[in-house]
Design brief:
This protein has a 6-stranded antiparallel β-sheet with strand order 1-2-3-4-5-6. The radius of gyration is 29 Å and the shape is elongated. α1 runs parallel beside α5, α2 packs antiparallel against α5 and α7 packs parallel to α9. It is built from 10 helices and 6 strands. The protein folds into 2 domains: 241 residues, no CATH class; 78 residues, no CATH class. It has 368 residues and is of the alpha+beta class.
Length: 368
C-alpha cells in the first residue's frame, strides 16, 4: 500500500534525524567530560575517540526508543494536519491497520535496540572499562613526579626520585586489599607496557607488608622480593576489582541467581520492548480529528512519553541499589500497554456502543 510505504519511510527518516541530533548532543557532553579529565591529567587524550566508539551501542539503546516515539508523533501530527489520518479512517482503514503501520517501523528499531541491549552494549561497556583503566594508567605514568602522591584504581604511589623515567625509593599502598591496605616498598623500578597495552611497574629489591583475612597480629605477613610486577590496569590482573554490572555478558546474567543480575537481565529484555510501547502510546494520544484546543493532543502525547521514559530511568537507577522484582518491572510495561490501548479505544470511538448500552442499563435501572 502506497500510504503504508510513505508512512513507514517518514517514521524512519524522522527517527534517524532525531536520534542523530540527540546523539550529537550526548557525544558533545561526553567529549567535554573526557577532555576535562584529559586536561587534569586523569586520562590520555588519544583514548577519547575509542571510548566514544565503544559506548555508541549504549547511547543507541537509550536514544532510539526516544527518537522513535518523537518520530511517530511528528508523522501523525503531520498526517492529521493534512487530513490524511481522517481520510484513512473514513475510508474504512481500521485501527488494527493503523497499529500495524506504527508497529512495522517500530519492529525494525526494536531489533536494533535488542541487538545493542543483549550483546553490543555489554561488550562495548567491558571494552570501555578496560580501555579507561589503561588510559588512566598511562596518564598516571605520564604525570608521575618525585615527592608527590599519585592515586589510581585503588593504588597510591610515591617515588622519592625519578631519573631517566626510572623511579627510585618507591612506596605503594594498595587500598584494594582487605581488611587493611597492602604496603609495597622497593629500591628501584621501571614502568613497562605489556603486549596487551597494559602498564605495570617492574619493582626491584623490595618488600610487601599485608594482612590475611583475619585481623590478628599473627596474620601479618612480610614478603621480600627481588623482582615484582605491580599492574596498574586491566581487570585480568586486578582480581579484586569486579566488573560493573552493565559490562557483564547477558548469558552470565541469565545464569546468575543474584537479584541485581536478574534485574539487569530483565532490563535488557525490556529495552527493545520500549521501542514498541512508545509509538503505541503516541498513537493512543493522537486523535484522527483536529482537537478543539490546538496542541492539546501533542502536549498529552509528549507528557505521556516523558512519564513513560522517566519510569524506565527510575527502574534502571534502582537496579544497583534496590533491584525491583521481575513482576514489578514487567507490570509497569504491561500497564503502559493497557493505557495505550484504552486511549486508542477512546480516541477512535471503539467504546461508544458499549458505553451507550451501559448508559441505557443504568437509566433503566434508575427508573425501575
Amino acid at each position: 500500500m502506497l500510504v503504508f510505504r510513505s508512512f513507514f519511510r517518514e517514521i524512519l527518516i524522522n527517527t534517524l534525524l532525531i536520534v542523530g541530533g540527540l546523539f550529537a548532543l550526548t557525544a558533545l557532553l561526553r567529549t567535554v567530560k573526557y577532555l576535562f579529565e584529559a586536561a587534569t591529567g586523569n586520562l590520555a587524550a588519544q583514548f577519547i575517540v575509542q571510548v566514544m566508539f565503544y559506548r555508541l551501542p549504549e547511547f543507541m539503546q537509550i536514544l532510539m526508543p526516544i527518537g522513535l516515539g518523537v518520530g511517530v508523533l511528528i508523522a501523525l501530527l503531520r498526517m492529521r494536519s493534512d487530513n490524511e489520518l481522517l481520510i484513512l479512517i473514513t475510508h474504512r482503514v481500521r485501527l488494527w491497520q493503523l497499529i500495524l503501520f506504527v508497529v512495522a517501523p517500530a519492529s525494525v528499531v526494536a531489533f536494533v535496540v535488542g541487538l545493542c541491549s543483549l550483546y553490543l552494549t555489554p561488550l562495548g561497556r567491558a571494552m570501555t572499562d578496560d580501555l579507561l583503566a589503561r588510559a588512566h594508567a598511562q596518564a598516571m605514568y605520564e604525570v608521575l613526579l618525585p615527592d608527590q602522591f599519585h592515586s589510581h584504581n585503588g593504588l597510591v604511589v610515591h617515588v622519592s626520585e625519578l631519573t631517566d623515567e626510572s623511579p627510585h625509593n618507591i612506596f605503594i599502598a594498595d587500598t584494594r586489599a582487605t581488611p587493611f591496605p597492602a604496603i609495597i616498598t622497593a629500591e628501584n623500578g621501571s614502568m613497562t607496557q605489556a603486549e596487551n597495552s597494559d602498564y605495570y611497574l617492574k619493582l626491584q629489591n623490595g618488600s610487601m607488608y599485608f594482612y590475611n583475612e583475619n585481623k590478628s597480629a599473627a596474620d601479618f605477613n612480610i614478603v621480600h622480593f627481588k623482582h615484582y610486577r605491580q599492574w596498574f590496569a586491566s581487570p585480568l590482573h586486578a582480581v579484586n576489582n569486579e566488573r560493573k554490572i552493565e559490562a557483564i555478558k547477558t548469558s552470565a546474567l541469565m545464569a546468575s541467581d543474584d537479584l541485581h543480575h536478574r534485574a539487569m537481565y530483565q532490563w535488557r529484555l525490556i529495552s527493545p520492548l520500549s521501542a514498541i510501547i512508545a509509538p503505541l502510546i503516541v498513537l493512543g494520544c493522537i486523535s484522527p480529528r483536529p482537537p478543539q484546543r490546538r496542541g492539546g493532543d501533542a502536549a498529552f502525547a509528549t507528557m505521556s512519553l516523558l512519564v513513560y521514559f522517566l519510569f524506565l530511568v527510575t527502574i534502571f537507577n534502582q537496579i544497583e541499589s534496590t533491584p525491583p522484582s521481575e513482576f514489578a518491572m514487567w507490570s509497569v510495561q504491561w500497564g503502559w500497554v493497557l493505557f495505550a490501548f484504552v486511549a486508542m479505544a477512546q480516541r477512535y470511538h471503539l467504546m461508544d456502543g458499549w458505553l451507550r448500552q451501559v448508559r441505557k442499563r443504568i437509566s433503566a435501572y434508575a427508573t425501575s
